[in-house]
Amino acid sequence: MDTKETVLNILQELTGEDLHDKMDEDIFATALLDSMDTVQMVLELEEQLGVQIPVSEFDRDQWSTASKITAQVEALQ
Amino acid sequence: MPSMQPYANPRYFVILIAALLPVIIGLLRGRRHRNYESFVALIFIIAMFGGDKWQQGVALIAYVIWQLLLVVCYGKYRQTKNAGPIYYTVLLASIAPLAIVKLTPVFSPQPSLIGFLGISYLTFKSVQTVMELRDGTIKQIDPLFFLRFLLFLPTISSGPIDRYRRFAKDYNGVPKQDEYLEMLRKGVRYLFQGFAYKFIIGYVFGTLMLPRVAHMALMQRSAMGGTGISWALVAYMYVYSMYLFFDFAGYSLFALSISQFCGINTPVNFNQPFKAKNIKDFWNRWHMSLSFWFRDFVFMRVTFMIMKKRWFKNRVRVSQLAYLINFLVMGFWHGVTWYYIVYGLFHAGAIIINDYWLRYKKGKSLPSNRWTGALAIFVTFNVVCFSFLIFSGFLNTLWFTHAIR
């Protein structure tokens, strides 16, 4: 499974929504993700994709949509 | 020489903006006069601690040297090594001056000698820098830049709290001319909105009304079986809440305005907090630079650690514990008195209840319309005002002191 699918899976588990068609929807602005979900998302990304994401790297603007998250993770891999 | 407090009166604005004119003209012509701006900042900081406040000035200098040493040495260390104990020692050392200042009143009638106006806000910046050095998101510390970040004049005494990397992005660049013209326009609007908030509305609530309702409430301190609960106390709660908002939001607008003139997009502090639909929403609108700081550097870190180490399985318990720690720390940060700590606990409780409600509501088709929305705002507003009554310390005066002010 590629990075994009894994990210979408993690997001679907957390938000209950399939974001395949909404790769550019802002998940913070639409309140799909709160701080707790965010932490869980970071942990899942670390576990499933083997990347290290510092909590303070968490500039929300750069992690705000499914496609941005995928790009960030790929850059860290 | 008497001291000159930031944004205290119209004269301060005239002098400050006149002193910043070369900076403004420079930015209009695409240049940032960093050294001149720092020189102005230095003069105004000296003026803040003139006259009988010179001791605070000395404390500020000592504080700044201490924090500078910590971040520079830790930054050097962090380039090659990354041991946990060293990090926690540096972190504690960075918090120590503020902790001492906050704890001193508990043990002594004299305020701490190492305290000064603005220490709380400077500490947020230093601590954040240490944490980001640990994370590796700040790679190198330029000592001069760190000083400019720490002592950025518009926000020095009471925020809003900026972030190192965000500030660096603005400060190391120069806005384009049309961008800067827009910033000036915003700066002027913030300035006049600030005048209306702090010097007119805040004055009416804080200076004209508050002492009267306080007096009335104190006259009825034996009401309701000695609890002092009276209509006057209810009035005090609302008047104080309005005063707190307009005074602080007005102050924050001044800081934003002067930041804009300096070509820096300092983050906003308030976004119509009394329109919040629940307590979570409220903390996304009230004193935002503080609550976001706590969210990113306390709440998220605590939850991250607990979940990574799997201390609790249940996600709900993790968030509840993290909320409790988060708001308790915030309470202590305001000061070590029972009412600040109760204020913190109250908000932790409110947000935990809020979470229960949100979870209960999820997936149910409860009515949601204009009226339920209005009800939500009404309930939230009153819960918040009650928390401000606790925060005001007036209950302490009402219940535990006997002199009538």
What tags apply to this protein structure?
heterodimer; A: 77 residues; mainly alpha; Non-ribosomal Peptide Synthetase Peptidyl Carrier Protein, Chain A; B: 405 residues; 73% helix; globular
Could you please describe the fold and organization of this structure?
The complex is a heterodimer of chains A (77) and B (405). Chain A has helices spanning 3-15, 35-49, 66-76. Chain A is mainly α and 77 residues long. Chain A has one domain (3-16, 24-76): ACP-like (Non-ribosomal Peptide Synthetase Peptidyl Carrier Protein, Chain A, Orthogonal Bundle), CATH 1.10.1200.10. Chain B is mostly helical and 405 residues long. Helices cover 73% and strands 0% of the residues of chain B. Chain B has helices at residues 10-28, 34-48, 54-78, 84-107, 119-135, 143-150, 164-171, 177-219, 223-226, 231-261, 279-283, 288-308, 315-334, 338-361, 370-392, 394-400. The mean pLDDT of chain B is 94. The chains are: A mainly alpha (77), B mainly alpha (405).
What's the helix and strand layout?
The complex is a heterodimer of chains A (77) and B (405).
Chain A: H1 3-15, H2 35-49, H3 66-76
Helix pairs in contact in A: 1-2, 1-3
Chain B: H1 10-28, H2 34-48, H3 54-78, H4 84-107, H5 119-135, H6 143-150, H7 164-171, H8 177-219, H9 223-226, H10 231-261, H11 279-283, H12 288-308, H13 315-334, H14 338-361, H15 370-392, H16 394-400
Helix pairs in contact in B: 1-2, 3-4, 3-5, 4-5, 8-10, 10-15, 12-13, 13-14, 14-15
Structural class label of chain B: mainly alpha
- Tell me what portion of residues of chain A adopts beta-strand conformation: under 5%
Whole-number count of domains of chain A: 1
Oligomeric state of the chains? Answer: heterodimer
SS elements, strand count of chain A: 0
**In DSSP terms, counting alpha (H) and pi (I) runs of 4 or more, how many helices of chain B?**
16
Portion of residues within helices of chain B: over 70%
Rg of chain A to the nearest angstrom? 11 Å
Architecture (CATH level 2) name of chain A:
Orthogonal Bundle
| Helix and strand pattern of chain B | HHHHHHHHHHHHHHHH
* Average predicted confidence as pLDDT of chain B: 94
* Outline type of chain A: globular
Helix content of chain A: 40-55%
Overall radius of gyration of chain B: 23 Å
Largest sheet of chain B: none
CATH superfamily of chain A: ACP-like
Number of domains of chain B: 2
Low-confidence residue ranges of chain A: none
Overall, the morphology of chain B is globular
